[in-house]
Design goal:
The chain is mainly alpha-helical. The protein has one domain. The protein is built from 14 helices and 3 strands. Strands 1-2-3 form a 3-stranded antiparallel β-sheet. Helix 7 packs antiparallel against helix 13. The longest helix has 30 residues. The protein is globular.
């Protein structure tokens, strides 16, 4: 059985006809525009993270990526972990640790090392390689969402993804033309592998995050990430980065940069679950492709970067891809047999065994639209 999308005016029309796209839909769909706008807020936060990191590493020679992550995890711990500690019942910190401590321990390690690998890659490979290879997070998120979250996509979603990646390719080409593709490049293969590893870990973390905030809660996710992230980053800081931290020429400017970085990072971690719940992990990662362009536009004034018209073309290409992706709802297939029948609606209807209780077989979820009564599933 197919459950049509929750649109009051759908009537008796077939569910796959409900997702036809018209230009009027693209312009007048507030949920789609909100989804795109929320993703750009995340991109601006990443732009702030990148700018403060650049000032710290290049102007003040403070190469402390683990310490910077440690500051963020400490903030998450102080705000969200303490919130869990004062809750009662099953939402209490100790109750959560008794049931799922090892799962959050693994997730905390994945999140920490994803950040570390990508930052470390800048020492070995070029900026252009990092920008292109970092897109590997998108197929990782799509595959994991397909198999573990049972999210199903339509042709327009894949078209939007291709357009976004073309926009990134255009930006990389512009970098080559204006000479921004240089990097350390001493061992490019190592750097490229680090980026691919970091992108893979990012994809795992994002999909796991989407699962947690949809079945459990945003505060639980952030509280446990803060707890285990602070613990493991503290250990890694003591082992790998304590000497670099002693070399930092501390003054008020460096302190202000660390505060700015931590504020942007804390805002990103706190706001991203909200956007993922309203859209999806795939949509968020597509939105983050514009972060490099925001950093570039700021760099035109701050660092006197050379400008190319291809950057504007890249920016608007990515936005068009985001609009295409957000214009149509995804859906969750809860029974693969019914999904196979849905893909071929003109084919024969196969009767399922009476003992197989699979209703509802397919549940539609619109991007940017949440149901009023969302099921709260507890996972052991």
């Amino acid at each position: 059985m197919l459950i049509p999308p929750p649109h009051p005016a759908s009537g008796s029309r077939e569910p796959w006809l409900e997702n036809r796209i018209t230009w009027r839909d693209l312009v007048s769909n507030p949920s789609m525009l909100i989804s795109v706008a929320l993703g750009q807020v995340l991109s601006l936060l990443i732009c702030g993270i990148g700018l403060t990191s650049k000032y710290l590493s290049e102007d003040f020679h403070a190469n402390t990526p683990v310490f910077q992550s440690f500051l963020n995890y400490i903030l998450l711990f102080l705000v969200y972990t303490t919130t869990l500690a004062v809750r009662q019942g099953e939402e209490n910190l100790l109750a959560i640790l008794r049931r799922r401590w090892w799962k959050y321990m693994i997730l905390g390690l994945i999140d920490l090392e994803a950040n570390y690998l990508v930052v470390k890659a800048y020492q070995y490979t070029t900026l252009t390689s990092i920008q292109l290879l970092d897109c590997f997070v998108i197929p990782v998120v799509i595959l994991l969402s397909w198999f573990f979250l049972l999210i199903r996509y339509k042709a327009v979603h894949f078209l939007g993804i291709v357009v976004c990646i073309l926009g990134m390719g255009c930006m990389a080409g512009a970098d080559v033309l204006v000479g921004r593709h240089q990097g350390a490049g001493e061992n490019k293969l190592v750097g490229d592998l680090l980026v691919l590893g970091g992108a893979t870990l990012y994809g795992i973390s994002n999909v796991w995050e989407e699962y947690i905030i949809r079945t459990l809660s945003r505060v639980e996710f952030l509280g446990m990430i803060g707890l285990f992230g602070a613990f493991f980053s503290g250990i890694q800081l003591a082992i790998m980065e304590h000497k670099e931290l002693l070399k930092v020429p501390w003054d008020w400017q460096i302190g202000l940069l660390y505060v700015g970085f931590s504020a942007c990072m804390f805002g990103l971690y706190s706001f991203m679950p909200v956007v993922i719940k309203k859209t999806s992990a795939t949509s968020v990662n597509l939105s983050l492709l514009t972060a490099d362009l925001y950093s570039l536009f700021c760099g035109l004034f701050l660092f006197h970067y050379k400008f190319s018209g291809l950057y504007l073309l890249s920016f608007f290409t990515i936005l068009i891809g985001l609009v295409l992706y957000s214009s149509t709802s995804t859906y969750i297939a809860q029974d693969p047999r019914v999904y196979k029948q849905f893909r071929n609606p003109s084919g024969p209807v196969v009767d399922l065994p009476a003992t197989a209780q699979v209703e509802p077989s397919v549940t539609y979820t619109s991007l940017g639209q949440e149901t009023e009564e969302e099921p709260h599933v507890r996972v052991a």
